[in-house]
Design goal:
Blueprint: E1 3-12, E2 15-23, H1 24-30, H2 55-68, E3 77-82, E4 88-91, H3 105-108, E5 114-119, E6 124-129, H4 131-142, E7 164-171, H5 174-187, H6 193-199, H7 204-213, E8 224-225, E9 239-240, H8 241-255, H9 268-288, H10 290-296, H11 304-313, H12 319-335, H13 341-350, H14 375-388, H15 395-406
Parallel strand pairs: 3-7, 8-9
Antiparallel strand pairs: 1-2, 1-5, 2-7, 3-6, 4-5
Length: 419
């Protein structure tokens, strides 16, 4: 059955396209994933124009956002039209001959590309950009995965079916489809992790992290780098937003939340608890960990030299060292029953944090002496720090830690704890 929709015609390079809107339900019914098209499996790598859908990302991140967030929004999808032989676009300028008697003179030039697109009903749409969102629309509407199984954390949202999504339609050609997909994804610059944390209102830990930096008496914002997760040797900041987020996620999981993934559906009471625990831990560490206190004592430019000097000398001037200390502290707090937080901080202060200390080789320092970063380094380093702080490791933990640090070196021994 033919359908006529309002559309705006455009031309980019040699591609003619139409910009319009579609209801989510209509989009879900008409979109076909490339892998579901006849002959897809027979295409070579050079002929394919889409990647495989990451269903884990769809079900855990994108679909819950569409299903559970009343403030949801998304950009336009780029769809290629299959079976487009009978597609017709009629510009407003063609109606009544396009004379000033039917169209006011001020609108005549715009009316050339503004009009109506008639679809005959047998067209199919293949996403060139937005296949993950298209699949997420379907899952969010139904609340089930491809096998019809209910997905935890997603309530089917029938209101979503009536939402309008902006779409850009182009005629389908296999070669041009691959070229369009490649260029869109190659030249689209993703936002940095820090930028995502600044704008994410769904992740309760991201919100709590921003609120932490909004307390100048605790941690002034000018001491936190937002754009990058690393600090170079001459950086004037104390830490990075990404480091604070990872540390805060560890605090929340250790103290008051044990779920998987991001706490994006936290209640107001949970969010308040997260912020309370995060502020409590950082208030303690920033005051009692001596190198932290030295680094933030003077947040003005006059204090930049101190922060740079600490980074040159100590691992606690580096984001990876800071994150490892926080996670090590949390592990010490869990295992050292009956020991006060102040005593735990005293133990941490007794650790030799100097970069030239050989005990950090293979832990937070590479064989060449560079400070290591990444999740693996933090996991091992936090366990190593907890050991130095007096945590009695299990036999399996001890064996894993030695193997992680020294590998095949049978002569390696863990350094003695500071207590």
């Amino acid at each position: 059955m033919p359908t006529t929709i309002a559309a705006l015609r455009g031309q980019f390079g040699r591609f003619e396209y139409w910009l319009t809107t579609m209801h989510v339900e209509e989009l879900v019914n008409k979109v076909r994933m490339p892998k579901d098209l006849p002959g897809w499996d027979a295409l070579t790598l050079d002929e394919r124009y889409q990647r495989e859908i990451d269903m884990s990302r769809v079900t855990r991140e994108i679909a819950p956002y569409f299903a559970n967030n009343p403030d949801r929004f998304t950009g336009s999808l780029v769809l290629a039209i299959l079976n487009d032989d009978d597609l017709v676009f009629e510009p407003l300028g063609d109606f009544g001959g396009g004379t000033s008697a039917t169209i006011p003179r001020a609108y005549q030039s715009a009316a050339v590309d503004l009009g109506f697109l008639t679809l005959q009903g047998h067209e199919l749409f293949v996403p060139l950009d937005g296949q993950h969102r298209a699949k997420a629309f379907e899952i969010a509407m139904l609340g089930t995965d491809e096998r019809g199984r209910r997905i935890p954390g997603i309530k089917s949202d029938t209101d979503l079916a009536r939402d309008s999504v902006a779409v850009i339609l182009v005629r389908f050609e296999p070669e041009s489809a691959r070229r369009i997909f490649s260029k869109i994804n190659r030249y689209a610059k993703p936002t940095s992790r820090g930028e995502n944390l600044i704008t994410d209102d769904d992740d309760a830990v991201a919100v709590a992290t921003r609120n932490l930096v909004s307390h100048p008496e605790l941690l002034p914002a000018n001491l936190v780098r937002f754009q990058s997760s690393m600090l170079n040797q001459r950086a004037p900041e104390f830490t990075t937003l990404a480091t604070l987020y990872d540390a805060n996620m560890a605090i929340v999981r250790a103290c008051c939340w044990h779920g998987r993934g991001k706490p994006e559906n936290a209640s107001d009471a949970q969010r308040e608890l997260f912020e309370t625990e995060i502020e409590r831990v950082w208030s303690l560490l920033l005051e009692e960990i001596l190198l932290f206190a030295d680094a933030i004592r003077d947040p003005s430019e006059d204090g930049d030299a101190m922060r740079i000097a600490i980074r040159a000398e100590s691992l606690l001037g580096h984001p990876s060292g800071q994150l490892s200390l926080v996670r090590g502290f949390l592990l010490m707090r869990e295992r050292c029953v009956g020991v006060s937080d102040l005593e735990l901080c005293k133990r941490l202060n007794s650790i030799d944090w100097r970069r030239r200390s050989e005990q950090w080789r293979g832990v937070l320092l590479s064989p060449a002496g560079r400070v290591m970063s990444g999740r693996s380094a933090s996991n091992g380093a936090s366990l190593f720090i907890a050991h130095l702080g007096g945590v009695e490791l299990t036999a399996d933990e001890r064996a894993w830690l030695i193997d992680w640090i020294a590998g095949d070196d049978e002569n390696y021994r863990l350094p003695d704890p500071v207590v």
